[in-house]
Amino acid sequence: MQQPKRINIGWHWERDYSRESHDYLKSIGATTVETYVKWIDIEPEPGQITFKSFDRALDHFVRYGVKWQPFLICGPWYATPYWFRESKDSHFFRCLEHDKNSGIQSIWNQKFQAPTRHFLKLFHDHYLHRMNQIDSLLLGISGDYGEAIFPCIGNFDGQYHTHRGFWCNDPAAMEDFRRHCQRLSKNIQTLNARWGTTYRNFGQVRPFLKQNAPSRRAMVDQVYWYRGAMLNHAEFWIREARKLWPTKDMYLCMGGDGSAEEGQHYAAAAELCAKYRVGIRDTNARDHFRFLNTYQCSTAVGTNFHRTYCGFESSHGSTPEFIVARMFAFIISNAREFHEYSFMGKKKVVGNFRRFRQWMELRFQRKVDVAVLSSEAYVNWVHEHATAWDIKEFPWGLPKPPHDLYNTLRYYFDFDLVNDTLVRAGILKKYKVLLVPAFTIIEEDIVKAVGKYLAAGGQVIVYGGETPQTVEGRTATMDGAIAISTLPALLRQLRTMAIRVKLKKDGIFEAVNHDGKILCYDQNHHQIYWQR
Asked: 137-140 and 67-73: which strand pairing?
């Protein structure tokens, strides 16, 4: 049985009840209000526990007729009490670039696991008898704000050392990396052969920056480990939360561009979350629909495939135009939760939201015939960014070749982005056509998986004027694939394969429902409608 859709509004927990707020929440059909619950807020001094402000807020939410979603944050600088940060059990992320500590607890700090359990248990015990007033839990496990991400941007400027980079230079991280390398290669001779190194023993192995990487293979492997470490930390949180709340809906908070330095792994997180019946909150909404298709709808590819759920959040609010694009992305992704910090006082945004609010209850099951390969190895190796996050003028996004490609293709046809993890899980059988970017770098086992897909009747197009390579630099041969260099030729070829394609940009984006009906978003006139 499918859950009802949630409209989730961010709220400051000190705000007083007001009739204006009551009417506003009712007018947009809000179901849930999210507030930040940081460890420092409920235990400002050791053993001094207070929930007074949160109790008051929850009483207000009951009067408003909405449920509460607490964002439980423990580990980031702004959420961790000063007395723990100054204790002997506090160990921070440490960067490779400058050999300096962040103010954020290292995910490799085993001594932080007991305080995390303590924080979750405090909340659980206090609200045990009010759980019917709580819609779901949002888990804030790391990063600058609480996402499953490494430090990259900071929140209170100047309070701690932070930047985009590799935060794996603390002793526990280095030891974990050595253990990973031992599991990967069994003995030092095998690792040397794989990486082109001359280590005498595993004790000499330590994380490195790209400019110091002994080989492309070594850098790609290190980033797999880096992403995996964040997933391990996420599993610890999810497992502990599930012990306390066996049946309550909960979301793992995730944000960021999926780059090597940020360390997210959305598809693997979807698989992990499905194991524990947990969803993903993706905080990446901004700019326009094509951006959403790359950086947010792609999260839903993983959650839908693994039969779990997701929610979408805007990174910095919505304009009257952008809110409609966000609603379309939400609908076609079959997302469960739509989060916005506040529309209050934004009459045009509220107007457009109310105009299309009923569409968000659609049980849309998107039928997509084309998959585009988004290689994990490529992003692990290429660390440049195509765009910027405008709030802090912060380099952001995938490298320019894939970012520009996905952005361009979505004008002409619908597609899913699938990465190595989803390919290994068997997702290709869903699609008629796989498009492989010619510029990409591919793992050998993915090349073999593509070969099996071809042998089973799938159709593969290698698009662009280059030849894909393996991580080791060999030609990634895919016998039976069609090589196409230009966009017009690609669109013509897809049409011969019975793919629904437009031959020119018109600003109208389509998604096909399972019943064949076509839902459209017109970015020129900010409309959502069924095609007649």
From this structure: parallel
Comparing C-alpha atoms, which of 73, 72, 66, 71 is closest to residue 6?
66
Closest residue by Cα to residue 372 from 322, 412, 316: 412
CB 400 within 8 A of CB 530: no
pLDDT at 392 over 60: no
CA dist., res. 303 & res. 477, Å (int): 31
Element at 455 (helix H, strand E): helix 444-455
| C-alpha span between 494 and 500 (Å, rounded) | 8
Helical residues (DSSP H) of 245-296, grouped into ranges: 266-275, 289-295
Q: Report the amino acid identity of residue 3.
A: Q
Return the exposure string of 147-161: e unless at least 16 CB atoms fall within 10 Å of the residue's CB, then b. bbbbbbbbbeeeebb
Average pLDDT estimate for 246-271? 96
Give ∠ CA 421-425-429 in degrees, rounded to 5: 115
pTM: 0.96
What are the tens digits of pLDDT across the range 148-189? 999 988 776 568 999 999 999 999 999 999 999 999 998 999
State the Cα–Cα distance between residues 482 and 527, nearest whole angstrom: 37
Determine the residue type at 476: A
Give me 171's structure tokens.
């002793």
Q: Check: CB of residue 528 under 8 Å from CB of residue 354.
A: no
Q: Report yes or no: 241 and 273 within 8 Å, Cβ to Cβ.
A: no
